[in-house]
Amino acid sequence: MLVLGIETSCDETSAAVIDEKFAVRSNAILSQQDHAAFGGIVPELASRAHMRALVPIVDEALEQAGVDLGDIDGIAVTRGPGLVGSLIVGLSLAKGLALAVGKPLIGVHHLEGHIFSNRIENGIRAPFLTLLVSGGHTELVQVVEWGQYEILGRTRDDAAGEAFDKVAKLLDLLPSEGVVVGGRVVAEWAERGDPEAIAFPRGLSGEETFDFSFSGLKTAVLNYVRQLSADERQAQLADIAASFQAAVVDVLVARTVEAMERTGAEAVALAGGVAANRSLRDQMRARVERGGGCFHCPPPVLCTDNAAMIAAAGLFHLTRGVRSGLELDAAPRLSL
């Protein structure tokens, strides 16, 4: 069995083919270059870029997999959450392809796709905990079994990845052109700095909750930077980045480990774009393994938005008889 996945929820245009063993036959990804000058993703530009790129990306994925469209047994596509215009582009092509070749269509939740990224790479078995952390979402999810999820905690304001991007912008670290990579740039600067140089706050510290909050931290960084001269800010950039990153990672790790202990989970997984952050991966692994648990994290290419994870979730539902009709619509605020 072969499933074609299509992902266009934000600014990555991706198509992939996986087989019945969840092995990736291809995973073609194009990251859009048009947004850096604006300091963030522009929805209209994103949807237009998907329109230009999606058909060639699908062709590339099929060619890499060595298959024709007629060999595909099902077409999985992200239906939400995400940017509505971008989602519609992917859905429209997926519907057209499914109708043209007479194959089933499966609408996939974007966050469920991220959870399935660890099934692709690690063959992880439920039950387990997933910390799903990205530019738009920060959620602590208990995977009771595949297809059954319980949200233990979520951010009350900014997502962790969003906080990274905003801090990169206020520190003037974003590139003037190319791909918007705020989190990656902050992480690179953080490697050169002292994570204990500045005592930034840990959101919701002292509260009995699995929720997260990063808006106060972001404001604390802003207030700290405002008191510095231009020369002082430049001299302290690495320490500011390192101290900010430490504040984010400390909270993410602490909440997750506490949830592992309270639920008795034996395995913990990271997923989402921020899961590519090396400090988060290293510290989470150390704390989970110190507590006797197994730690799982996909490689960076499966952390960011990609169609392989969408195809994997689609394969799971397809083998259980799930089908979506051609009336399937985009759901930009779809909850897990």
Features:
10 strands; 5-stranded mixed sheet; Nucleotidyltransferase, domain 5; 336 residues; 2 domains; 10 helices; alpha/beta; 44% helix
Describe the structure.
The protein is of the alpha/beta class and 336 residues long. The chain folds into two domains: 2-114 and 303-318, 2-Layer Sandwich (Nucleotidyltransferase, domain 5), CATH 3.30.420.40; 126-300, Nucleotidyltransferase, domain 5 (2-Layer Sandwich), CATH 3.30.420. The chain contains ten helices and ten strands. It has helices at 43-65, 84-101, 110-122, 160-170, 182-190, 215-226, 230-263, 278-290, 300-303, 307-318, and strands at 2-7, 12-19, 24-31, 74-80, 105-109, 128-133, 138-145, 148-154, 267-271, 294-296. A five-stranded mixed β-sheet has the order 3-2-1-4-5, sandwiched between helices. Strands 8-7-6-9-10 form a five-stranded mixed β-sheet, sandwiched between helices. Strand 9 (267-271), helix 8 and strand 10 (294-296) form a beta-alpha-beta unit. Helix 4 (160-170) packs parallel to helix 6 (215-226), helix 5 (182-190) packs across helix 7 and helix 6 (215-226) runs antiparallel to helix 7. The longest helix has 34 residues, at 230-263. It is globular. It starts with a strand and ends in an 18-residue tail after the last helix. The mean pLDDT is 94.
